[in-house]
Amino acid sequence: xKNYKYPLKRxxxxxxxxxxxxxxxxxxxxxxxxGHDCTYCSSRAMLRMHPAxxxxxxxxxxxxxxxxxxDIVEKVAKDAxxxxxxxxxxxxxxVDAWAPEAQKLDLGRxxxxxxxxxxxxxxxxxxxxxxxxxxxxxxKKYRDRVTVGLSLTGTVDKQDIxxxxxxxxxPIADRMAAMQKAHKMGLRTFGMLCPxxxxxxxxxxxxxxxxxxxxxCGAEEVFCEAVNxxxxxxxxxxxxxxxxxxxxEAEAVGKIRKRVNRSAYxxxxxRNVQAAMRKHMSVKQLRFLLYTSALTPDDEARIRKAPAGVxxxxxxKKQ
Length: 319
Hints:
Elements: E1 2-5, E2 13-14, H1 16-21, E3 26-28, E4 31-33, H2 43-46, H3 51-56, E5 65-68, H4 72-82, E6 88-91, H5 100-103, H6 107-116, E7 122-127, H7 136-141, E8 146-152, H8 159-165, H9 172-184, E9 188-193, H10 204-216, E10 219-225, H11 233-243, H12 247-255, H13 259-280, E11 286-291, H14 297-305, E12 310-313
Parallel strand pairs: 1-5, 3-6, 6-7, 7-8, 8-9, 9-10, 10-11, 11-12
Antiparallel strand pairs: 2-3, 4-5
Helix pairs in contact: 4-6, 10-13, 11-12, 13-14
């Protein structure tokens, strides 16, 4: 993994798209490219025209590199103090503040401190890295202002598969242990089941297990999403799975490159998540994030007949 540095203009930005999702009205990102290097990541497509990509001379859809702003904390502190309109800010929306390159600079904890030093900022933490547990001591002091979530993309029995498509993220077992620790310490939590890829994390049994788990961790809300096709993320995911011998899973991912199949997968996923939520929590706590562009007209009509927990979204804009 090659790590690059690039100065961002702002520390805190308004995020209308994440507000629509119910996640946060503001975003903090510690760079431009995350070092977890997940094959299915949609941020590569969203940020493909960012000037940082051109400056370092790397291809926008290429893997194997990260881009971080080592001075982001000072910018977050400045914006946190100067902004009049405040609210819920997500750390992070596109670049994980606890990814390996960010950990080296302790960016996650330092950004939290900068935000918490100012009143009226509430924080939603979203990460795929169990290293966030090192900051639970700080979070506990401000537990009313911080909610913790670790993205769960499958069950523990699928770790061998997940390890090749999200190579530098923490293993699922470690993420689950972090969620359990947060709950035991009395921290506020939320569930993030995203993305639940076909053939890897979308079976009724897996979904039931994941929802039951986050329920036991005291999740206030559960966000779920089908994988979004952007750039070459599905092609890359299929290729990496196939190269590592996971042929059935590669076939399942490759199948949803066709819109009609992706639409059918999304409908089935929504139904299974709704059923698990009704069983273990309340469907009122579900936030199933759904882009209408992913659906055929017939499938959209099917979901609108049973829309419990669905958050309807239009085409995603660049953050």
